[in-house]
Design brief:
The protein has 4 domains: 62 residues, no CATH class; 163 residues, P-loop containing nucleotide triphosphate hydrolases (Rossmann fold); 41 residues, no CATH class; 75 residues, Beta-grasp domain (Ubiquitin-like (UB roll), Roll). The chain is 40% helix and 23% strand. Strands 1, 2, 3, 4, 5, 9 and 10 form a 7-stranded mixed sheet that branches. Strand 2 and strand 3 form a beta hairpin. The protein starts with 6 loop residues before the first helix and ends with a strand.
């Protein structure tokens, strides 16, 4: 903030910082803007405040839509990996789904026109695909689309060769309206605001410089805090995290004649999140979807049972025994003593593990309490 502001403007800025809600902050920002003199020395400050006002107005509008939207029931299924497929239009979605060769023409058309999932089996679970043309986003199905996105484990974004950059930006904008952002675990960023101490940046990103982070946070009105970066964090992931959006695993599916490495660098995403259409569809397609979803299967064995459950539960990859217990029931986590674990099948060697032990796909787990 410039130092030659009138005293009343400086006092008003303190009210902005102390605001307890977005609505209160918006009103205080508007008043603050009206108190800033219009001359060359305040041009940048006025521009920053206007951007903050615009962003807050958008966020408040999105939250109002969420609160006013009628609750829509969408049954994902307990043993189902749900993948949303986004594209600019139905034509691109139809072509992609046809090349998968898992679903008939009429099923694909019904899914596109009625927002019905296309489901198939994968080993002992189900995988469902929900194609959504971005042209549908603003219609009356807003509430249903929001429910689908929040229940999705993976989002595929189909990018045409004419304008892949524009289509990726559109997908990000569309998802942000629903409180969602695209990021793998190695492209995330987080920020914790502090009252004093300046900005501390923990770890480094290939896509961000410290001065860029500090400038961005200053524009958002933050003077102190801790920024934690992963290897491929970007301003997009940092801003989305600060805004409280929910992260979703993603893949960008691109035309075969596009250069994945060049595209990934320009879009500031990990190169492993960009894959050509033919490469993605060839071979064991469903295994690729499952691995990209970020979930895994855990088979629970009650202490009194002779064998584990036939159907697994789906949990986030890299979950610990303690986190698994907490997911099942908070009280179970608090009383957890240890776990018995079979890795590689129920007939494998029995292990006794602690709550901090990390689980792998297809582990059989028996939780023991105190």
């Amino acid at each position: 903030m410039v130092t030659n502001l009138p005293p009343q403007a400086e006092a008003q800025y303190k009210k902005v910082v102390a605001s307890k809600s977005k609505e209160e902050k918006l009103e205080n920002l508007k008043i603050f803007l009206s108190m800033i003199p219009e001359h060359k020395g305040t041009e940048k400050l006025r521009a920053q405040v206007k951007r903050q006002i615009s962003r807050l107005q958008e966020e408040i509008l999105v939250e109002k839509k969420r609160r006013s939207s009628r609750q829509v029931v969408f049954d994902k299924g307990d043993n189902t990996v749900l993948t949303t497929i986004l594209a600019r239009d139905k034509g691109l979605l139809y072509d992609f789904l046809s090349h998968i060769r898992l679903f008939g023409e009429q099923s694909i058309l019904d899914s596109l026109n009625e927002l019905k999932p296309l489901s198939t089996s994968f080993e002992d679970i189900a995988v469902s695909f929900m194609p959504i043309p971005m042209s549908l986003i603003e219609n009356r199905r807003y509430s249903l689309i929001q429910t689908i996105l929040f229940k999705s484990d993976l989002i595929l974004v189909l990018l045409g060769k004419a304008d892949p950059y524009g289509e990726y930006r559109l997908a990000r904008e569309v998802l942000s309206r629903f409180g969602i952002y695209l990021a793998s675990k190695n492209s995330t960023a987080s920020f914790k605001s502090l009252k004093a101490g300046g900005i501390t940046v923990v770890n480094k990103s290939r896509f961000l410089r410290e001065e860029e982070i500090r400038r961005f946070l200053a524009e958002q009105g933050f003077e102190s805090g801790i920024v934690n970066l992963s290897e491929y964090a970007s301003l997009y992931t940092l801003e989305s995290s600060i805004r409280g959006l929910q992260r979703r695993n993603f893949l960008l599916i691109v035309e075969d004649d596009l250069d994945e490495e060049k595209l990934a660098l320009e879009l500031k995403v990990p190169v492993e999140n960009v894959i050509k259409t033919t490469v993605f569809l060839q071979g064991d397609f469903l295994t690729k979807v499952f691995e990209a979803s970020g979930v895994m299967r855990i088979y629970l064995k009650p202490p009194s049972a002779a064998a584990p459950s036939e159907k697994p539960i789906l949990v986030d990859r890299d979950i610990t025994v303690g986190e698994l217990a907490s997911k099942i029931h908070k009280g179970l986590s608090e009383s957890l003593k240890y776990a018995r674990l079979w890795r590689g099948g129920f007939k494998s060697t029995l292990l006794r593990v602690s709550s901090s032990f990390k689980l792998l796909d297809k582990d059989v787990v028996e939780l023991r309490t105190k």
